Structures are given as C-alpha cells and as structure tokens.
Amino acid sequence: MYKKIVVALALDHGLGPKALDVARKLKDDDGEIVAVHVHEPIPNFASYYLEPGQEQSVIDRAEEGVIERIGEAKDAEAIVLKGHPGRTISEYAESIGADCIIAGSHKPGMKDFFLGSTAARIVRHAPCSVHVIR
Q: Which domain CATH number covers 120?
C-alpha cells in the first residue's frame, strides 16, 4: 500500500472517478491522496486577446472541477498546477515525496505514437511507481 498517491486528473477525460477509486483502494489507512490537474500555459500570442483575469477564471474552474471529482468523500487534496502535464506531474510527485502516481490513458492517436501521451511521459519520468488505468 502507498502513503502518498498523486492522482493525475485530466478534466476533459472521464477517468477521474475510476482513478480516485483505485487510489482509495491502494492507499494505506493513514495515507494521503492528492488530486492534481495541470493547466497548460496559454501561448503569449493568444493571451494578448484575453480579458484581464480570464486565465485565472479558467484555473478557478479547474480547481472546482477537481473538487467535484473528489466528491463527497473529501478524502483528497485538490491541486491545480501550471505547466506541461507529463513533466509537471512527475516533478510535483517528486517534490512532495509521493510513492505512487495514478494516471489515465486514452487510446492513442497517430500523434501520440510520435510525441507520446501524458501517461507515457509520466511512466518514463516518474520518481515512483505509476499505475495507469483505462
């Protein structure tokens, strides 16, 4: 069993409830779950056209989405980070001393074979065990 589990949540995919259920089964009785969503940076050319505060509004909505995915159990901490998902999740897991990352994987498209999916990047760079779900 694991003491500190990071659950990588992509709010545009439907694997959040399943990933959190797996985390709840894998954690020790005194373990922690940290549900993480990564907000990718908006390119500078696009941010010029945004109203002031609009990006923060998106981040706030993402945090609400993570809290909603956690559900009524309220047994996980909700975190929204900025960066590129695969690298940011791996670095964050290392910084908090996580001993497991749970990430969902979708069926890859052609671009994923060349660039790699977020789950594949986490598996390659994670400082701890990784549990990939579908």
A: 3.40.50.620
pLDDT tens-digit readout, 75-133:
999 999 999 999 999 999 999 999 999 998 876 665 555 445 888 899 999 999 999 99
The upper half-sphere exposure of residue 6, i.e. CA atoms within 13 Å in the direction of its Cβ, equals: 32
Q: Which domain holds residue 76?
A: 2-133
Cβ atoms of 26 and 128 within 8 Å: the answer is no
Do the strands 2-8 and 76-82 form a parallel or antiparallel pair, or are they unpaired?
unpaired
Dihedral through CA 84, CA 87, CA 90, CA 94, nearest 10? -100
Place of tokens 């069993």: 1
pTM: predicted TM-score of the whole model, two decimal places: 0.88
